[in-house]
Amino acid sequence: MASESRQLPDNGLTTLDPMRIHAIPVSAALDDPGREYRASEPDVPLRCCLRKSLPGEPVWLFRYAPPAGKGPYAELGPVFTHVNCSTIPQFDNLPVELLNNTRILRSYNAAGQIHSGQTVEPGSFNSTIEELLNDPTVEQLQIRSLSHGCYLFGISRS
């Protein structure tokens, strides 16, 4: 399945067709009895709306297992979401605010095994994601922090 690119006028990033961004719902925090409430934790990546937090925004810090990895590839790691999130991210547009730094991009096959992993520099996300989604053995992608390896969001074909 080939992807088609088109330039977006408002932010200069490309939308890839067909692509779907996977954010983490706030309700996922309620599944972790060890979740921590933070009245303010500025500048952390929020996985619910795919932007950085602002001062004074209450957030949850909790453990989350991204759905792509299965068996020995399943991982559990810390993530932040709002306590209450009213913003719904665009599910076909890469979140600019979380892609201003070098990131790790992992691809997974249908069995939940890691297909490949690489670091991606700002400005190279579109071409790397498009190339990986054009590979029929790739089922889902994960974007992760380079410094801590934390899961930021997932991408799949729509």
Class per helix and strand makeup: mainly beta
- Looking across the biggest beta sheet, what order are the strands in? 3-12-11-9-10
The outline comes out as globular
* Number of helices, where a helix is a run of at least 4 consecutive DSSP H or I residues: 1
Q: Identify the quaternary structure here.
A: single chain
Helix content: under 10%
Low-pLDDT stretches: 1-13
- Give the N-to-C terminal Cα separation: 11 Å
Strand composition percent: 25-35%
Mean pLDDT: 88
Query: How many domains, as an integer?
Result: 1
Radius of gyration computed on alpha carbons: 15 Å
Find the count of extended strands (DSSP E, 2+ residues): 12
Spell out the helices and strands N to C.
EEEEEEEEEEHEE
| Sheet with most strands | 5 strands, antiparallel
Polypeptide structure, described:
- With 158 residues, the protein is mainly beta.
- The protein has one domain.
- The protein has one helix spanning 125-133; strands at residues 4-7, 14-17, 20-22, 36-38, 45-46, 51-52, 59-64, 77-82, 103-108, 114-120, 140-145, 151-156.
- The strands form four sheets. A five-stranded antiparallel sheet has the order 3-12-11-9-10, covered by helices on one side. A three-stranded antiparallel sheet has the order 4-7-8, with no helix packed on it.
Key attributes of the depicted protein:
three-stranded antiparallel beta sheet; mainly beta; 6% helix; 1 helix; five-stranded antiparallel beta sheet; 158 residues; single chain
In short:
By secondary structure, this protein is mainly beta.
